[in-house]
Amino acid sequence: MSVIDDHETPDHGMTARQMAFFRFRRNPLAVIGALIVLSVVIMAVFAPWIAPSPESAGSFVNFRNRHAPPSWDNLMGTDNVGRDVFSRVIYGYRVSLGLVVGVLGVAVPFGVILGLVAGYFGGWTETIVMRFTDIMLALPPLAMALAITAVLSPNLVNAMIAITLLWWTWHTRLIYRIVKGQMNEDYVEAARVAGASHMHILFRELLPNCISAVAVKVSLDAGFVILFGASLSFLGLGIQPPTPDLGTMVATGSEYLPEMWWQAIMPGLAILYAILGFNLLGDGLRDMLDVEL
Amino acid sequence: MSRLLDIQSLSIGFSAYGQYRQVLHNVDLHVSEGERVSLIGQSGSGKTVTMRTIIGTLPMPPGKVEQGSILYDGRSLLDLNVQERNRLKGTGISIILQDPMLSFNPVLTIQRQMDDIIRYADIRLERRRTKGERHAHMIETLRKVQLRDGERVLESYPIMLSGGMRQRVLIGMALLNQPSLLIADEPGTALDVTTQDEILRLLNTLVDDEGLSLLLITHNLGVVRQMADRVYVMERGHIVETGTRETIFEAPQHAYTRKLMAAVPPLYGDKVQTVVHHGADPMIDVRAATKDFQTRGGLLNRATASFRAVNDVSLTVNQGDIFGIAGESGSGKTTLAKMIMGLTTLSHGDITISGRNVAGFAGSQEFRKLVQIVYQNPGSSLNPRRTVADQLAVPLKFTGSDSTAIKTRISELLDLVDLPQNYASMYPHELSGGQKQRVAIARALSVNPKILVLDEPTSALDVLVQSTVIDLLHRLRREFDLTYIFISHDLSLMRNFCNRVAIMLRGEVVETGPVAEIFDAPNHPYTRALLSAIPVISPEEDALKPKITQEERASVLATSTLLEDE
Amino acid sequence: MFIYLFRRALTLLLVLLGLAVLIFIIARIVPGDPARIALGPMATAEQVTELQNEMGLNDSYPKQLWTYLSGLAQGDLGKSLLTSRPVMDDIRAALPATLELVLFTIILQITVSIPLGVMAAVYRNTWVDNVLRVVSLIGVVTPGFVLAIMLQLVAAYYLGFFPITGRLDGGIDFSADVTGLLLIDGTLAGRFDVVTDAARHLFLPSIALAAAGIGQVMRITRTAMIEVASRDFVEASRAYGIPERVVTCRYMLRVASVAPLTILGLEFASLIGNAFIVEFVFSWPGIASYGVRTILQKDLNAVIGVVLVSGVFFVVANLAIDILLGVLDPRHRLRAGRDT
Question: Is residue B541 a contact partner of residue B267, using CB atoms and an 8 Å limit?
Fold first, then answer.
């Protein structure tokens, strides 16, 4: 009921877009994050043209060049059968990004819609959906994913299914919280008074208020999906060789520690690089869009 | 009389988002011992910055003192180091911040917070007091602010106290260390006018009893008149006028001061503009409307108790009326409005509009084209992520207009509310409060309703902006022959805007009738209590306010000195 | 307070029940015959049928569910398909190792990340803050297994001070009988050689496990503190002359700690998951390694047991966090009691 609406810092007369851009500029890490992500995407998409030795991605062997340390010929060295690690890493990014797109492409829309519906309609819908989500959230994700991929056979698609089945819950919870908060705002009631249909309110009024949060979360999630997938394959339950997968590479490479350290460490660093990029980008977006996550 | 606080030629700049702006320009202000000084300004005038600089809580990296000095008791505040500055806090200068709820740490008890204040001041002043002595001091201070049950208050968490009690505790906290100068930032603004009246009287009593000097910062001219000996008027960082209370109110010099005075709607006297309208046909008929809300709780979340928000209300609104529903928070006025809008179902009774029962046709297209609503806070009633045009289009879309018709209509609407056409593609945060509210009004009018429910439409706006929006509403009513239901707590506004008024208290209508009658000859003690509590800006108005005795007051109002469940 | 606790416990019990049922459903709708999978392709039809009957797989679904749930209520998780020992025994043997590791990790996380997060907020935008942000970033983005391997590499191979596998040196003769936790039992028995050795073994795995959580919580703490710092009551407390240190610790932190503690609660889920990785790399004889082994061997009952136990742990840990929040923040108590 206060008349004093505006906080009494002086009016700076800038539009929201200008302020967002200012924040982004001030945040070099976000820019770095964006560049890293871009590099990973380029490597993944253009793998056959970028990788110095595309054959390394398959069942190619070159026993003469086994266990070669990093050099100008092989930037990341070679593995136990002589394949170029760097090329395998680039192809590994393909797998990782494929996982990201596959998982998030399904989990995000599903989770968002579920959260919108639960938050907006309330009542039994809300209770059922959120209780179910709570239960799913109580399942330890890695354990469940392991269990699922073990029982189905371990391959990329099943890993994707396992991860997707667990991932949507986080988005549902996030969107649900945002929507519940927004339901107290008058504009929702105003839309209802104006006669708007449920679909309109859900997707035209509420959803735009969630987009920022979703964008930030998707960016951060991409990193975690990669991490998750790599952890699965590290334990031997994700993608199977000879498909180059970063997690599997770390696992097989760890047998040759510590002398041939590059076989395990290089793929590990590659994973770190990708996750770092997505994380920095997500943080930067969060600052820029002024989102509370 | 020596000057306790002396600000001379103070200029302060502030940088935000890479831009540097000057916030205070050459401000001169002083408070002498025992004086009550008021600083009045609207939002953005710089009054909060001034206050913060005096106290020392203005963050100095983004803020910068360009020139000037602040002397307290002869010492220059700006030159003191942190320790010396801290020593003054609470003991020399003490403050009461604006919002009682936000000024408390929500997770600590009152006792804890007050004890901290005393303890740390003692350490700074090298005093020693035992826990018992501190406790006694706290009880005594609470008694001074008229809270008799000090023990229970101390044990409570802030969230458990009512707004009025929190304000009193806040005043108590400011007094704990016997300051000489008390700075109060909008005291009582967030409270009902009757409670605010109590609080202001309390402050006056304390100033006399404790020998304090008072610097009161506010936007409300009526409060200034009640509380100040001398006045400073501030606009955009400049002190535009200063003088004694009598000079300022009887003969304001500066144009801005005069504008402010003119914008305050008069409560009594010849400047009052009585709206007369003799509507013939009843349009809205409310009969014995009642609404009960269930509260849930207990082990299994069962409905435990029910709370009656609206009790057996009956009234009739005629076509062309500007019908005011007045009441303070908790009176049920908003619930009643929602019932008329068909947004809340009635527990008993019924409401008919143009002969048709609301329960039957609420939510239908017909109803929407008949009745629309404008909300109090445009920041919340407009979707921050959609453009003005998008939001104006919504009611049109769902009443069957096609896209070309919508486009033309949006254009018309913007003209109607005096907004330039290019505003259609803007987002709400790019507009000022008054402009946002115009958009909200445009949205309500888009489908050509006959009845407009206005829920505190100007409460969130500055008094100057308020008068422009009110003028707009007047114009629209004449042009389209509308009927208004105007809900507010601001009786001065209603006096000049409505033709008929209903006063609500705790869910019931205590009095209703033509506006001049109700204000000039109020029957019900609550109406009289309400009217007499309003701070007015001229002694003539004061004299014309109704009188009320203490007993009558107590019979209708709960004072803010008791805990909620007593 | 009591009502609040009761309702939280009730909700969580329901969640546990739902969890058990969900796991049951997943286990049953998964394609393939558990009995056949367990026995391998060489088994005869009679052997498969025998095992099926023993497992109750040929009973109706409702009967299976009932047997399963009533068994659970008694603490019976069925028999391992491979060893034929009760799963509960296997789990009970392996659990203390994981518990010790996880508890140690949680304590590490809380005691490290919250104070560091506060420091980062107080010294915002100085070099302290930047260093801490880099540290937390590294924690968050480094995959658990990469960190584990690198720790093994650096600390064990190159520095040689920390062991890389197991809980205790083979040479030490000690059996943790009281609580199963070496640190506690060792102290109780007065065997400080046990305590120091166990601590040395715990050190690397718990860092690997704690890193991601520390990074996350540190950042959330920092953000929460910065947000609280701009609130009115903080300014008010300064205006009353309360010293800065007290303002930070008592006024800001108690309000700001809600967010990091909530995140910590969510972290438990990934903690259990990461425990799988860390136990694997460090050959830690805990429940997670047991889980990985049984999953690879497709021992269905054991897998169910592991998943259930992890779920229970998660749920209990969250209840603890909830209680803690209720103590710290009275609003949490009042609010949750009203609208759960």
Answer: yes
Phi, psi angles (nearest 5°) of residue C173: -105, 105
At residue C313 the predicted structure's pLDDT band, cuts being 50, 70 and 90, is: confident
B196-240: per-residue pLDDT in tens?
Answer: 888 899 999 999 988 889 999 998 888 999 889 999 999 988 999
Cβ–Cβ contact C280 with A under 8 A: yes
> Considering just the CA atoms, what is the radius of gyration of chain C in Å?
24
**Structure token pair of residue B411:** 């254009």
What's the confidence (pLDDT) of residue B303? 65
pLDDT in tens, C62-76: 777 777 777 777 767
**Helix, strand, coil fractions of chain C, as percent rounded to 5:** 80, 0, 20
Query: Across the strands, what pairs with B287?
Result: B350
Q: Which phi-psi region, left, alpha or beta, contains residue B507 (left: φ > 0; alpha: ψ -120 to 50)?
A: left
Q: Which residues pair with B451 in a beta bridge?
A: B371, B483
Asked if pLDDT for residue B389 goes beyond 90, the answer is yes
C148 vs C43: which has the higher pLDDT: C148
H/E element holding B142?
A: helix B131-144
Quote the pLDDT of residue A29: 81
Give the burial string for C250-267 (b: 16+ CB within 10 Å, else e): bbbbbbbbbbbbbbbbbb
CA gyration radius, chain A: 23
Q: Is B565 exposed, middle or buried (0-12, 13-18, 19+ CB in 10 A)?
A: exposed
Q: Which chain A residues are closer than 8 Å to C307 by Cβ?
A: 139-140, 143-144, 147
Of A4, A189, A211, the CB nearest to B343: A189
Higher-confidence position of B527 and C269: B527
C338/B99 CB distance under 8 A: no
Query: Both tokens of residue B261?
Result: 């005075």
Phi, psi values for residue B538, rounded to 5°: -145, 150
C-alpha to C-alpha distance for B227 and B13, rounded to whole angstroms: 30
3-state secondary structure C17-84: HHHHHHHHHHHHHCCCCHHHHHHCCCCCHHHHHHHHHHHCCCCCHHHHHHHHHHHHHCCCCCECCCCC
C330 inside 8 A of chain B by CB: yes
* Closest Cβ opposite residue C241 in set B105, B120, B159: B120
Q: Distance (Å) from the C-alpha of residue A115 to the closest C-alpha of chain B? A: 19
Helices and strands per DSSP (H, E), number in chain B: 23, 20
- Judge whether C141 is closer than 8 Å to chain A, CB to CB: yes
Among candidates A211, A277, A247, which has minimal Cα distance to A89? A247
DSSP annotation of B401: -
Least Cα distance to A226 among B80, B20, C146 occurs for C146
**Both tokens of residue A174?**
């996030």
C85 touches chain B (CB under 8 A): no
- For the record, the structure tokens of C15 come out as 């969640």
Residue B70 falls in which region: left (phi positive, over 0), alpha (psi -120 to 50) or beta: beta
CB-based contact, B97 to chain C, within 8 Å = yes
Averaged pLDDT score across all residues of chain C? 78
Task: Look at C14 and A223 and tell me if their CB atoms are within 8 Å.
Answer: no
Measured CA to CA, the distance from residue C104 to residue A56 in angstroms comes to: 43
In which residue are the tokens 């690198």 written?
Answer: C150
CA distance A150 to B57: 61
Residues of C in contact with A255 (CB under 8 A): none
Q: Give the chains touching B; criterion: ≥3 Cβ pairs < 8 Å.
A: A, C
ipTM over 0.85? The verdict is no
Model confidence at C340, pLDDT cuts 50, 70, 90, reads: very low
Cβ-Cβ pairs closer than 8 A, B with C, add up to: 87
Confidence (pLDDT) at A7? 30
DSSP A155-223: SHHHHHHHHHHHHHHHHHHHHHHHHHHHHTSHHHHHHHHTT--HHHIIIIIIGGGTHHHHHHHHHHHHH
